[in-house]
């Protein structure tokens, strides 16, 4: 029986963009291809032909659609990049960045899908060519010619879509390089502005330049604009000159420039071919490794099952041993609990005993601190207070009883109390110290005598000098303000400029205010006969201050010791 010829068809593939849609689509125009006629034949050629025709139609349509979608996304991606480059950074909407990320992912997905579909379509076309070119293929010449024409048309559609995609991809790479250069230029310009004008905040939406930096800012910006204008004009001139030279060489028959372009194109084609081969090898290796992985997983699953059975058996034996052991441990645990409770009771008793002991120790230390405070208070009162109704010579008495009481009230081997008591002058222990009232009374007499001998040096002087010094003390008028305000404010003064009257006025000022320390400092500035007159008073005052300082230290120590046990 003779095989019937394959059905002839004349389908034309058209690429168009419908109004109202953003993405281009591919449609079939002309008379639709009839379905393949079922042939009762043992030859697989007719069945393979029908299946390949359908696969070629679907693969070609999907490949062209994918390429066109990728072209559309790349154009939109390039438009977003141009918008980002042209607009200021602070005026770009956040939605633009999200759209750019989404389009980047869609672009890679469409490129991958279009490449896969194009490879499938090319593979099916090669199979169809191989079937048609076989001598065993039984068909009339018109059918073969129609098949060849359709194959050529499908290949042209795919190649046309692929060329459009590659052209847009090259434009996209140029735009990305341009974007990188613009971002780098912006970053460099921002760093220059931050270096020249540290007070300018470039992150603000509205740039605020101080008035004192405005001229320099405008000059710097204008210099950059002039530089880039010159560079742009230079590049335009160089490009035009190169283009004119290449055109002239090509017109005169020279092939160097054109050969370079051809070499670059050949290199790009070889890169694309190697990339395609690499992708095919990757897919092949991926498939091979996936098969190996499945086999490994099967073997591992079987091994895991055997291991699980063994683990269950061992676990059962272990549970049995644990149950046996647990019964033995319960009795021991109860014994341990009883021992722990007994130990806790003993520990509480020991803690209670220690707490009582510590409380007794603290009470004893607190009482000792109170006794020490009372003894220190007695010592301080003996130093400051005198006996009313007696002269200052009769008010002095030894402080040995009070010091002995402090030593007895202090704890044994108390280093602080021992060191402070050893620092008390010997005169205060054996003779005693003059109270403040006695020191004031003596100071008035010392002051009067010191004013009388204010002009006499330490080695003495003639009688006229004595008379002159005496007359000066009579006619000298005391100042209303003995100390200037600057000196009261602790400002630096030159003490060498102070005379005897100035020193006595300042000492009297601080004595009236109860500051014996400051009074003694001023009295130490006296020279000559006034210093000899005041020397005994100065010694008594120093003994008083040293003893008072020791008493205050002991008082503070006793108070702090008492507070520690509250």
UniProtKB/TrEMBL annotation:
* Domain of life of the native organism: Eukaryota
Q: Which UniProt keywords apply?
A: Coiled coil, Membrane, Mitochondrion, Mitochondrion inner membrane, Transmembrane, Transmembrane helix
Which Gene Ontology cellular-component terms appear in the entry? MICOS complex
Q: How does it sit in the membrane?
A: Single-pass membrane protein
> Which biological process, per GO, is one annotated for this protein?
cristae formation
Q: Where in the cell is it found?
A: Mitochondrion inner membrane
Coiled-coil ranges per UniProt:
111-171
InterPro entries, sorted: MIC60
The role this protein plays is:
Component of the MICOS complex, a large protein complex of the mitochondrial inner membrane that plays crucial roles in the maintenance of crista junctions, inner membrane architecture, and formation of contact sites to the outer membrane.
Oligomeric form and interacting partners = Component of the mitochondrial contact site and cristae organizing system (MICOS) complex.
- Which family does the record assign? Belongs to the MICOS complex subunit Mic60 family.
Q: What is this protein called?
A: MICOS complex subunit MIC60
Q: Which organism is it from?
A: Diabrotica balteata (Banded cucumber beetle)
Q: What is the lineage of its organism?
A: Eukaryota, Metazoa, Ecdysozoa, Arthropoda, Hexapoda
